[in-house]
Amino acid sequence: MNILVLLKHVPDTETRIRIGAGGAAIDESGVTFVISPYDEFAVEEAIKLKEARGGSVTAMTAGPERAAGGLRTALAMGADAAVHIRDERLDGADALTVARVLAAAAKGGGWDLILAGKQGVGADNGAVGAMLAELLDLPQVTAVSRLEIGEGRLTAHREIEGAVEVVEAPLPAVVTCDKGLNEPRYPSLKGIMAAKKKPLETKDLAAVGVAWPEGAAAPARWSALALPPPRKEGRIFTSDPAGSGREVVRLLREEAKVI
User: Fold this and answer.
1) Beta carbons within 8 Å of 32's beta carbon, 6+ residues apart
2) Which of 134, 149, 174, 255 could hold 114 in an S-S bridge, CB 3.0 to 4.6 Å?
3) Which of these, 102, 98, 96, 122, lies nearest to 114 by C-alpha position?
4) Could you tell me what percent of the chain has a pLDDT over 90?
């Protein structure tokens, strides 16, 4: 199988986020960037399919220079090649702009399957995979927690409220991956060393035939970011249970005014 995996390079979920000086982006000093966790499920699933059925896995991302780090991780996990559509303006660009760039780069690649995470945890953007499928005129199944590949078809399981939805679709198709699909492997030392010899192709927008949208079509941009307000300190009640219960009820009635 010829499989394409789409990646996003995001701040580690354990990183302490600070707002940058301009107020419209995060301060990246001291921030560790990683593959979005949902995209890790996509990489792992692609590698498992290659191991079971043969073929190759190509990782692709669109973003600033630092996004190449995510591709190197995918190569170390077992991907065979990587493509980086590099443009600093893509950092923080809206979903449609990113989807158009990735679709242009993916078009004509002869892919049997395109995998991506169900969302990128950086800004919780979950629209790129679906938009890319529409732009490439491919069937799509989103938020998949179990995937079976047959002869020219796939069967995908999606967890919905109180049930599991089973969807069949012809190949090629676009699938976005959810938690539970697999357990992503850690890159081994051998894999990390081998990744240095694997091809990582860098292209600009012109190379994939995309012009930066201007005017009314210009990408949406963040105008301001703000951290959530600090939570108020909790209260500890040290009296007997009955007295504590009365005090809680009083506070709910007189201060919180919820009863």
Assistant:
1) 11, 12, 15
2) 174
3) 102
4) 76
Comparing CA positions, the residue from 96, 95, 97 lying closest to residue 87 is: 97
Residue 33, domain member (yes or no): yes
Looking at residue 235, what is its pLDDT? Answer: 84
Query: How many structural domains is the chain composed of?
Result: 2
Q: Which of 43-47, 97-101, 127-131, 213-217 has the lowest mean pLDDT?
A: 213-217
Is the torsion defined by CA of 76, 79, 80, 83 positive or negative? negative
The CATH number for 127's domain is 3.40.50.620
Look at phi and psi of residue 92 and say left if phi exceeds 0, alpha if psi is from -120 to 50, else beta.
Answer: left
Nearest partner of 1 among 125, 137, 171, judged by Cα: 171
Query: Do 107 and 191 belong together in one domain?
Result: yes
Beta strands in 54-95 (DSSP E): 56-63, 81-86
pLDDT of residue 125: 86
CA distance linking residue 152 with residue 5, whole number of Å:
19
Do 150 and 207 lie in one domain? The reply is yes
Confidence of residue 117 (pLDDT cuts 50, 70, 90): very high
What CA–CA distance (Å, rounded) separates 135 from 145?
24
pTM of the model: 0.87
Q: Quick check: 231 pLDDT over 90?
A: no
Fill in the DSSP letter of residue 196.
T
CB contact at 8 A, 63 and 89? no
Q: Which residue reads 């399957």 in tokens?
A: 113
- For range 55-73, the mean pLDDT: 96
Closest CA relative to residue 147, chosen from 34, 3, 37, 6? 3
Same-domain check for residues 79 and 205: yes
